[in-house]
Amino acid sequence: MKYLCLVYLSPEHWNSAPDEACFACSQEMTASGHFITGTPLHPVHTATTVRVRNGRPTVTDGPFAETKEALAGFYLIEARDLNEAIQLASKIPPAKYGSIEIRPTRELNVAPQKSDPQKLAAAAAP
Amino acid sequence: MPAAEIARVQKEVDAIYRKDSRRIFATLIRLLGDFDRAEEAVSDAFRAAMEKWPIEGLPQNPVAWLVSAGRFKSIDKQRRDKRFDHLEDRPDVAEALSDDATPLDEQELLEDDRLRLVFTCCHPALAPDAQVALTLREVCGLTTEEIASAFLTPAPTLAQRIVRAKNKIRDANIPYEVPARDQLAERLDSVLRVVYLVFNEGYSASSGDSATRADLSGEAIRLGRLILQLLPESEVRGLLALMLLHESRRETRATEDGELILLDEQDRSRWNRALIDEGAALVRAAFSSQEIGAYAVQAAIAAVHAEAPSAADTDWNEIVGLYDLLLRITPSPIIELNRSVAVTMRDGPEAGLAIIDGLLADGELDKYQLAHAARADFCRRLGQYAEARKSYERAIKLTAQGPAKRFLEKRLAALTGAG
After folding, report:
1. Domain count across chain A
2. With a CB-CB cutoff of 8 Å, which residues 52-91 of chain A face chain B?
3. CATH number of the structural domain spanning residue A27
4. Among B37, B177, B186, B392, which residue's Cβ finds the most Cβ atoms within 10 Å?
5. Torsion angle of the four alpha carbons B113, B117, B119, B123, in this order, in degrees rounded to the nearest 10
6. What's the gap in Å between the CA of B175 and the closest CA on chain A?
7. What is the ipTM of this complex?
């Protein structure tokens, strides 16, 4: 199962976890086969929120939630279950200064596409 | 089949249901991977037993029979639903459908499942009130209505809380397992907190119907016994001891019309000796282990009280020492407040008042009515009636309607007479 670990930090701790530590953390998770992708984010004043209403996109400045802590980055990890995800997330360096939101990811709930050439090929194979 | 025979089997089935249905449920959750499916499978299994056992006689191992029957019925249902649901696309279901050879009759396996269920229901990723509700519902087998009435919560609210928790278990993939050794202590904390919360909800005399509340304490004690049997850790012993020692005084904590009676005025001859002996033995066992935790120390304090012939003959020096130990394990201003009462009993109210004034100056206990009630009592004993009156009034203002408030008002009235 894939879990999204969202890193939240308040402004005074934005730079508390050094990039080197975060890089080392992702290296370790890569070596153990848990890391899928991850990236730090620019500070919150660069955030933009897009909403589509009645078919028209509206763009607003700032994050969608106004809390002191803001999204500072994410790790997409592969973990056996929530317990393993919690263990891994607790090793993400900014966990010490802010919070990491763990969100289980889900697949898009769509029927298998008939036009998917790979699936068709597999189905046609003897 | 004669009616008498059917009635006899019915009685057997009822007895097995009462004793083992939660155990069967716990195992079916593991086998079927889903709470709701397991719940349904339990009813199906007992229904099948009522159909078959009067004809075929009781099986050799009824619990294993019921687990197999429940599992078979559920898998059969899923097979029938399959053509609608593309179940073959789901690896977990495919596995459950193909794997028919899981051994079912191993006692140990069944017991492990009950522990799995406890740890899953008390998982810290669930909201605390959902942990309590889910544990009472799934582990203890209480109905949603029973839990709702005990917690004075509307049943639909409680039902929704349980559904949300079960959805989170499924969607976030909270595993059905006993945590590994290196995480056990931390996770056990959360389990024991739920058990103690349930107990206290049943023990606090302040609100709700007293009969349902005694049931809650009984459930908590049963749960404590179950966990101790499955996981003989020192803190489990400590918590069970603490609950038993509190429970031993249940009948003497209030008059028949519900007025509070403090520890030093309780009729000690009516304390339940059997519970005290059992609790004290558990305290000794907990203290003989390497790790002494907060529950064991609180239980030890309760045991010193329980074994003292009167308030005056209590070993207050021992109690102060135990509070010092407790403060090292879990520093908290409320424990310091309790310690100040023990210090007063040992060294006189002047020493206690100095501690309490220090605590109140820190500000953290300013909204805690028991701090002001204790201060009032110390001042009263020192003859400082004006100060006592001020603290009683503050305590009364912070206390909700009920026996505790009436108790304080009586004390305040007596003071006016005295001073």
Report:
1. 1
2. 80-83, 86-87
3. 3.30.70.1060
4. B392
5. 150
6. 6
7. 0.71
